[in-house]
Structures are given as C-alpha cells and as structure tokens.
Amino acid sequence: MADRAELLVFWILAVPLLVSAMGVVVSRNPVNAAVCLVAAFFFLAGIYLLLVAHLVAFLQVLVYAGAIMVVFLFVIMLLAVREENLKEARLKTMQWAGIAGAAGVAVVVAQAIEASGRMPWKTVSPEFGTVRAVGRLLFTQYLLPFEATSVLLLVAIVGAVVVAKQRI
Amino acid sequence: MAEANHYLALAAVLFAIGLAGVVARRNILVVFMCIELMLNAANLTFLAFARAQGTMQGHAIAFFVIAVAAAEAAVGLAIVIAVFRTRGTLWMDEGSSLKG
Questions:
Q1: A101-to-A2, A95, B15, B45, B84 alpha-carbon distances in Å
Q2: Cβ-defined contact of A78 to B81 (cutoff 8 Å)
C-alpha cells in the first residue's frame, strides 16, 4: 500500500518534471526557459524528498532554485536577450544527429537499468538523509573535499569578477 | 513497487533531454541551463543509488555536485557577459575564432 502511494507521488512529480525540462529545451525565449528550469528544480526537490534526501532537497531549492537561477535571470535581464526567430533556430543536420545521439544515450541507459534487475529499497534508519547525518559524513569522511569545495568557490568568485569586469 | 529503477530511468530521460538541448540550442544561456539539467540528472542517480544501498555517501557527493554547479554557473555566466561585451551576441556559432 505504501509502495503504491510512493509510486503515485513519483508519477505526480516525474511527469511535470519531464514536461518542464522539455520546456527548457524548446522554449524560444530564455526567460521562459529559466522559469521552466525553476519549476523543474522544484519537482526534482520533491523527488529528492521521496528518496529520503531531506538535506539535498532543501539545498536544491535554496541553492539551485534560489541562488543559481537568480544569477541566470540577472544575466538574461542584463543582456537584453531577443527572441529567437525561426530562421535562426532552424536545426542543422549536425543538431539532428546530436538529438538522435541523446535519444540513443537514453535508450542505452534504459537497457542497462533493465538488465541490472530490480533494485528494491533497503530499510533505512530515521536519521537517513537528515542534516545531522549528512553533516557528520561531510565533516569526517569527506572533510578534505569539503574544504577543497570552499577553495573552489573562492576561486570561482574571484574568477567571475576578473572575467566579467571591464577594467580591474 | 518501490525500487530504484524508476528513479534511474527518470534520471536517464532527464539527462537525455539536457543533452539534446546542449547540442540543439544555439543560445549560450539556454545551453547553460541544459547543462544544469544534466548535472541534476546525475544528482538524481546518486540519490537513487544511495537510497537503494542504504548508505549516505551519495548525499555527500550530491552536495559537492551542487557546489560545483554553483561555481560553474558563476564563472560560465561571467564568460557569457565577457563574450557578449566583445561580440555583442549570445549565439554560440558566432564565437568560432579559435576554430582556425
């Protein structure tokens, strides 16, 4: 019964997720694409909750839908993007080949998932995915990558300023 | 049945949509958004396997992926602004001077 409820919620979230992801790819105006992407991030956060990944779901909403998308929208507004017209957006042969390749990737991965058999859930402790448990993992086993991430973010901030500024 | 296969298939489709967007779209901002979609598909895979294995290593990796995506967005959008300033366009085909 609980399984069926989980599957129902999964489909309720997965279908709009795929629709909004398609919206990112096909929408002509970058602002529409950005709004579709925000919607996709929210649905994905719901799916993360379904996977008992509470911390990652909240980070998804805070960092992705909050911070990263705001940067995207700022850049779109700054650059006064025009809409693509049909002539420019006409797909070339290479791009059709690329789309076919992407579909091929999906088919191959689906086959691999099919071949690997069913992977049922393990029962997990109530601590699974909470801030406390993931934080403990980050500060013990993953301490070095965690600190390296802080350096990476610092370098990214400085790099972004250096690249985007006209004269330093 | 509750199992990881559904989530993995969903991640595969999401990744393929992002990949199709990267190769088909010529607006560099939309290409960036599609890259974010692909990173999210990878995150979904990590979390699905973490749930199936009952371990939390995947959550830590997903955390790092989000941090790297933030850094990538910051630097990438700075490059977009710099390119727009010198070339006045967001079309990827215009920036081909390195092609030789």
A1: 38, 9, 12, 20, 30
A2: yes
- What is the mean predicted confidence (pLDDT) over A119-143? 89
- Only one residue has tokens 């010198």, namely B86
pLDDT in tens, A69-85: 998 998 888 886 666 55
Closest residue of A to B38, CA-based?
Answer: A21
Interface confidence, given as ipTM, is: 0.90
The HSE-up count of residue A62 (CA atoms within 13 Å, CB side) is: 9
Chain-chain contact of B5 with A113 (C-beta, under 8 angstroms): yes
Q: Which two tokens stand for residue A60?
A: 């998804």
Mutate to test the interface with B, among A28, A70, A72 (most CBs of B within 10 A): A72
Q: List chain A residues with CB under 8 Å of B84.
A: 79
CA distance A43 to A133: 24
